[in-house]
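Table 4 source record.
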Amino acid sequence: MVPMRAEPVEVVVVGAACLDIKARLRGDTVAGTSNPGEVRMSIGGGARNIAENLARLGTRTALLSVVCEDDFGRTIIRQTGQAGVLTDYVLRSCDHHSASYIALLGSHGHLLVGVDDTSATAALTPDYIDDHADLLREARMVVIDANVPVESAVRLLSICNDAGVPVVLDTVAYTPALRYRHLIGSFYMVSPNEIEAQALTDVRILSESHAILAAQHLIAQGVTIAIITRADAGLVYATSALTGNVPAVEVEVVDPTGAGDALMAAVVYALLNDIPIDEAVRLGVSAAALTLSSAETVRQDLNLESLYAQLVL
């Protein structure tokens, strides 16, 4: 039974909802043995993170995802719902365990390696997308992460294109981005990091000019807004009419997990509220900086006032 909605949903986000396990090393490390550090657990997943960030910014947001009906899955649903995300449409299936992500961070908070187990997203089939076609058609914007099976993304794009709903792609990582390469021109906006942009364009990014070239390559393929994030170097962005760059905000990095998701959510929020792209990307950089300085995957006190408080001018 489809739940009744008291208010229209502005954004539908489709993709992974995970349990994040993040280990941060202390000091020098010794290979082949245990090392001292700190281990934290939080709720994550690219799509879920974007949905929560949007909800915390006051956007009516629904999540299409899958969890197992186990303790982890129930925790993901509970905490996501408490943040203000509509979770009624999330699929409960134990064909796979709930998705999870493990991040190993260096002593300065930078990601050394991450391991994704998002096999559960195989349950987000074209039939599941069809079951929620009306929800997608009624949205002002849809965001999909590249964990979603490609055939399901094709179905989603067809539904949204027919309804005139713009679709944004979260590329997630190098391998998922590569799977989506042939579809890239169908998306309204995409925001890869440098290695994901290389998967999409074959442009090896060694400088700002290379990043702008890759962004323009994405625009030439049909993307309306291309943003390429460059870690400490900030980001570059392009449309058919302009290009630009925004420096990073200097913060102490506590945990990089979720920073890119916060950036995308802030840009989506801004675009929905008719904020020009040059200001929208600056709000995105603000959201990323706030998330970098938090131990949580999604900053719990995120709001519009905090974004503007450290806006890059």
